[in-house]
Specification:
Layout: H1 8-17, H2 19-28, H3 34-54, H4 57-66, H5 70-83, H6 86-120, H7 126-136, H8 140-152, H9 169-174, H10 183-187, H11 191-208, H12 212-233
């Protein structure tokens, strides 16, 4: 299904089952990016609104305090207890998710735009690269849905926020505890990231005409550098 009969709903399905077709159509319709962007942000924000209304909040406060280094725990405890409440925590999460997501998409699009200018020189503007960033991250909704399932299947409502990431490298392989050097690093990488990078590689290759290997290097290089340097620091 192509041409005028192809809809944004078709693209949302095909980005999962037939990404090449979806990315070809998405390139022609930058204005579609609002749909995956809103859905992604709404689901991610909704997850934390639900989580903070569901979790045993007094327990979560004490759990948060326990994760503070022992030498700073006493002086931080009162501040944490005063600041944390379900409503404030939920809206802080929603605002942070929105801002950070938009910043990441902008940085990613800027990098791909610059890489294309310097290496492949295809006639593609910044807006299309921003659209590619949004669409290839749309599969992140599956990570959000898995987090909802984790909540629904929990034995109790005493569930830490890091437990909402069962697809992270930390949950699957590292098993670092809060406070461990690798905890945040390993929790920041998940299977959805690799899926998204794969889709972005396909998109870069199809949009610029570059070979898949070359596209993969261009797409993955910033991630390797960022997480490689981070790993050496921790």
């Amino acid at each position: 299904m192509t041409g005028s009969s192809y809809s944004v709903l078709n693209a949302m399905v095909d980005i999962v089952v037939a990404p090449g077709k979806a990315l070809d159509e998405i390139k022609l319709r930058t204005y579609w990016l609002g749909w995956p962007l809103v859905i992604t942000l709404a689901l991610a924000g909704g997850l934390f609104v639900y989580y903070y209304s569901w979790v045993d909040f007094p327990w979560l406060i004490e759990e948060t305090i326990r994760q503070v280094p022992a030498e700073n725990r006493a002086e931080s405890a009162d501040t944490i207890r005063q600041f944390m409440d379900p409503g404030r925590s939920a809206w802080t999460a929603v605002i942070a998710i929105t801002i950070v997501t938009l910043i990441i998409y902008t940085i990613q699009a800027s990098y791909l735009h610059l890489a294309n200018k310097l290496i492949t020189a295809a006639d593609i503007g910044f807006g299309k690269w921003f659209s590619l960033s949004v669409w290839t991250s749309f599969v992140g909704i599956f990570g959000t849905l898995v987090a909802f399932i984790t909540i629904f299947m929990a034995d109790s409502n005493q569930l830490a926020t890091h437990s909402l990431q069962p697809l992270s490298l930390n949950s699957l392989l590292i098993h670092a505890k809060p406070g461990d050097p690798l905890f945040t690093w390993a929790g920041s990488i998940n299977l959805i990231n690799f899926w998204s990078l794969y889709l972005m590689t396909i998109g870069y290759a199809r949009w610029t005409g570059a070979e898949m290997m070359k596209s993969a290097v261009i797409v993955v290089l910033p991630w390797v550098m960022i997480f490689g340097v981070w790993a050496t620091l921790v």
